Amino acid sequence: MISIINIFVKTFAINLLTFYSYFRILGVQKINTNKKIIALILILGITLIDILTNNLFYDITQLLITYLVFVIMLGILSSNKFGISAIITITSISISYTFVYISAILVAILSSFVNRSSINPIYTVLVSCIYFIISFALISLFFKLKRFKNGFSFIKNRSDNEYLDAFVLIINALIIFVFLILENIHSLSFKDIAIGLFVLVIILFIVLQRSIILYQKHKLQTKTLKDYEQEIAETRQKLSTALQEKQKLVKSNHEFYHRQEALNKKLNDLINKQKLSLNSEFGKDLTYISDRLNTLSNEYIEKTKMLPRLDKTNIQEIDDMLSYMQSECNKNNIELILKIECDINHIIENYITKSQLETLLGDLIRNAIIAINHCNNEFKSIMAVFGIKEDTYEICILDSGIPFEATTLVNLGLQPASTHLDEGGTGIGFITTFETINSCNASFIINEITNSNYTKSLEIRFDNKNEYVIISKRIKEINEVNNSNREIILRG
Hints:
The chain is an alpha/beta fold. The protein has helices at 2-25, 33-52, 59-78, 82-111, 123-142, 153-156, 165-183, 190-276, 280-304, 316-331, 344-350, 354-373, 406-411, 428-440, 475-481; strands spanning 335-340, 381-389, 392-399, 443-447, 456-461, 468-471, 489-491. The chain is elongated and about 125 Å long. The termini are far apart.
């Protein structure tokens, strides 16, 4: 009988401490009286059922059923979901076991000073009550610490965040498992240990699953963070450029202000002079002032002229080449537009080397500049596009210059062929271009039907076909000059 009472006191104490820890973890300072009564009745009932069914189930199985009932019961009383309630319950149980065993050690030390020969049979019951009281006192002190008096913030404020779930589950599961082994080390059977290990494996599986989810989330967050960092860097670059442009304008305005005022003074003097007398010098002075105003205006435009900022490929060599070609376009009063619609790193890693791409861009844009300079079109523009067309990566250069001559198209890449050999167009560039295209097994497409302000486009398509394609309305003319019967795919 004394043994049953002792087990009852011990089980009831742990269950009650678990209930108390559960709500303190949530930061609940005062528990509703009705909830206290309901919880007390349920805890009493669970304790009695544990004792009565002690011989029907293995100890581990019985404990698992008890813990499951606790998860459901405490989840209903606290209005928490099953998953959250399970984490808090396991944490509460591990806290209860920890302080109960600390209390047991303290009681064991104290009882060593007592003369046990004079102790009556109720001694064990009294000891259980004493270490229950000490356990409750220690847990109360624990939750009065400044760090924990408002509960476990990483659990109660989790907002369905799973970042700490895995850590909490594994630590508390191990604590409970160790305590159960220590408590029942002399009575545990192989089945008990097997069941315990099975539950631990399930918990580890859940932890592993959540860890994988966390890794995926972290990977996505890292990618998003990198994207944000890149956007911030680009914004900073734009801001820096804007500030430089502002400074340039302020400086130019300051520089030209006094010169403009001097001319204004000269003009006023002439007007006053003209009122007094008419002479031939007035016309000369007026012409002189007009010339000076035109010169001043041109100087101002030149000084305040600013190049639009090109998008960055984030490949230093390519960015440097495009920046250089933009300055060359600017010298010839040509607009250079860059559109990046795909991952250029993918092109370099899979199709063409960095140095080949650098040379290719330089040659194609240089030829486009020459073509535009020999065109009367007021629209002077070159557009470089990195994109994907028909599920294939490609580089496209469009220009508003004159078209190729038919003989140039036929001999392109075979021999130095250029319409303007005396103006920088050696024709060697296209030999290098075709060598690069052949090494990449890419196709070269010249399209003279662009349906836009651009007169032609030159496309390097990485389709693994190595074709030379011309899309033009001059198919007959091109066929007539193709004396070598070069293999060219012509489309109209």
